[in-house]
Design goal:
The protein has about 425 residues and is mainly beta. The chain has four helices and 18 strands.
């Protein structure tokens, strides 16, 4: 190390391997049970729990144990310029073998669900980088301390073993990346009846009295068969393709702090730089999902084919006309207004993920900011006080995000159908007093 000094102060290489058993499994899930239920008939004037149904597992698993997690890690620690600048980097490979999941697809005539067994293997590759800065300067004859730290990490997980010969999209598949979003490629809106006749999209019409009319979402025919259909397998996806991923990637955290003449300040930022989200909630779709849902401001940019006649315009309110809603809107963000078009229960219409409404869930949030002042100890001696500090702190102050008007980006769960309450903004004033 003497050859590298004084530039390099710390240099360390690390390697490790570890095995863990995941015991987060049901204690008695390997046992077949006979579920009971209330009878649908009244016996002696009341319902009685006398019905016993078929066993929940019709097949004895015979192979049911903990999942095994094996992790190989390689790392580097580096400090330069008297450790003012520090760097830590780790690369890891984590193999989860014997994942507990339902087995291969079984015929419906079996009469029960496939039992959970140690059927699948998963491999996760990822890295984590930490870069820090710590130094002090003299400003106005007083020391100024500065600290900064950046943490950035990423990982991707893929299935390496699972029995799914048909490569059904509804189950694990070898080579599948966890979080895949299969969806349609948007091609604008239908403009006229001739376009509607040229492309058959009847297979994805939601339930109810809906029909395809000008302004309806149009999709690209990826398999060139003149129809838009959802495939069931990876080998024959028809018009589906991978359009995004719900896994959070490039997770970032930034810590900044400074201290000078009794004043202190700190800032904490956190976020995710890459994640996709497809909305399946009426708080986003409004009347497109349910006719009794609220209309939000963004829904007013909907497809309108032709302007109303003067007679029809006279029937509209002044506010309706002033908002431009009585005019044609062919380049709208949203399709023609039809309720149930985005119904979340039937896997059709706008409930099918598509590229036009696939949202980027990336964000960077001011998670915490704190300002404080510590009164000099010399001024506190007469009061027999060792330390007196006042501070103002705030949490979840602001977000840099494209989707925050729809949903709190931090509240998005891994599943792209998730919806959650936003994190609250908080402000607090406090005093630290020590005797």
């Amino acid at each position: 190390m003497s050859l590298l000094s004084p530039a390099v102060n710390t240099l360390k290489f690390r390697a490790s391997y570890g095995d863990l058993g995941n015991q987060n499994v049901g204690y008695f899930s390997y046992l077949q049970t006979l579920p009971t239920a209330l009878s649908s008939y009244l016996i002696d004037g009341s319902q009685r729990r006398i019905i016993t149904r078929a066993p929940s597992l019709s097949i004895d698993p015979n192979n049911y144990t903990w999942e095994r997690v094996s992790t190989t890690n390689f790392g580097l620690d580096l400090g330069v310029l008297n450790n003012k600048i520090s760097l830590t980097y780790d690369y890891f490979i984590r193999n989860t073998t014997g994942m507990l999941t339902a087995g291969q697809e079984l015929p419906g005539v079996l009469g029960t669900a496939a039992p959970s067994q140690n059927y699948a293997d998963l491999r996760t590759k990822g890295w984590e980088l930490s870069l820090g800065y710590n130094d002090s300067y003299t400003v106005a004859a007083k020391p100024l301390s500065l600290q900064a730290k950046l943490v950035l990490s990423d990982s991707r997980s893929k299935i390496t073993r699972f029995r799914n010969e048909q490569k059904l999209l509804s189950n694990y598949r070898v080579g599948q990346e966890i979080g895949e979003i299969w969806g349609l490629v948007s091609d604008g809106f239908f403009r006229d009846e001739s376009e509607i006749r040229e492309l058959d999209q009847t297979a994805i019409i939601p339930w109810g009295a809906l029909e395809i009319i000008p302004g309806w979402p149009k999709y690209k025919d990826l398999d060139n068969d003149g129809k838009i259909e959802r495939g069931l397998t990876e080998t024959d996806p028809k018009d589906l393709k991978v359009i995004g991923n719900t896994s959070q990637r490039y997770r970032i955290g930034i810590n900044l702090s400074a201290d000078w003449a009794g004043f202190d300040a700190s800032l904490f930022l956190q976020g995710v730089l890459k994640v996709d989200y497809y909305p399946r909630h009426y708080l986003f779709w409004g009347p497109y999902q349910q006719p009794y849902a609220n209309v939000y401001p963004w829904h007013l940019d909907y497809y309108r084919a032709t302007s109303d006649s003067e007679a029809d315009r006279a029937k509209h309110s002044a506010a309706y006309i002033a908002a431009g809603l009585a005019d044609a809107n062919l380049d709208a963000e949203y399709p023609v207004m039809q309720s149930w078009l985005a119904d979340a229960n039937y896997g059709a219409g706008l409930d099918i993920p598509q590229t036009k409404y696939l949202l980027s869930g990336q964000y960077l949030r001011i998670k915490n900011i704190t300002l404080g002042y510590t009164i000099p100890s010399s001024a506190l001696k007469r009061l027999h006080v060792q330390r007196f500090r006042v501070y103002l702190t705030g949490e979840n102050i602001f977000e840099f995000s494209e989707i925050k008007k729809f949903i709190d980006p931090e509240a998005i769960n891994q599943g792209y159908s998730a919806w959650a309450y936003p994190f609250q903004r908080k402000m607090a004033f406090g005093i630290n007093l020590e005797f």
